[in-house]
């Protein structure tokens, strides 16, 4: 993948992605969402674009841009 997009308004601060990111690239923002959560943010300098956060997030927060092999694509985490 080329890039990962975080839709912070969907984040419920469950911490699953933070616990699974081996790069420690994820943290909680200091700014609250309208729903009252501190959403996840990505440190691009640490992120290796492994996609684990996309796989574990139950709230479709992550969208990945670009597929292995270079084909342009976009998909969003599967469950709501
Ligand atoms: S893509 Fe991988 S390295 Fe980047 S934030 Fe997600 S889990 Fe961490
Ligand atoms: S797994 Fe999804 S909902 Fe949970 S903290 Fe991470 S981004 Fe937010």
Describe this structure in words.
- This protein is of the alpha+beta class.
- It has one domain (3-76): Alpha-Beta Plaits.
- It has two helices and five strands, in the order βαββαββ.
- It has helices at 16-20, 52-56; strands spanning 3-6, 26-28, 40-42, 62-65, 74-76.
- It has a three-stranded antiparallel β-sheet with strand order 1-4-5, with no helix packed on it. A two-stranded antiparallel sheet has the order 2-3.
- The chain is globular and about 30 Å long.
- Bound molecules: iron/sulfur cluster (SF4) (2 copies).
- One iron/sulfur cluster binds next to α1.
Short description:
With 80 residues, this protein is an alpha+beta fold. 12% of the residues lie in helices and 21% in strands. The chain has a single domain (3-76), classed as 2-Layer Sandwich (Alpha-Beta Plaits).
Give the topology:
Layout lengths: L2 E4 L9 H5 L5 E3 L11 E3 L9 H5 L5 E4 L8 E3 L4
Antiparallel strand pairs: 1-4, 2-3, 4-5
The site of one iron/sulfur cluster has 13 residues, from helix 2.
Strand and helix order: EHEEHEE
Low-confidence stretches: 68-73
CATH architecture group name: 2-Layer Sandwich
Distance between the termini: 22 Å
Quaternary state, please? single chain
Shape: globular
Structural class: alpha+beta
| Number of separate domains | 1
Total strand segments? 5
**What is the CATH fold-level name?**
Alpha-Beta Plaits
| Number of distinct helices | 2
Helix share, percent: 10-25%
Small ligands present = iron/sulfur cluster
Radius of gyration: 12 Å
Query: Largest beta sheet, briefly?
Result: 3 strands, antiparallel
User: On the 0-100 scale, what is the average pLDDT?
Assistant: 87
The neighbouring-strand order within the major sheet is 1-4-5
Task: Name the CATH class.
Answer: Alpha Beta
Strand-residue proportion: 15-25%
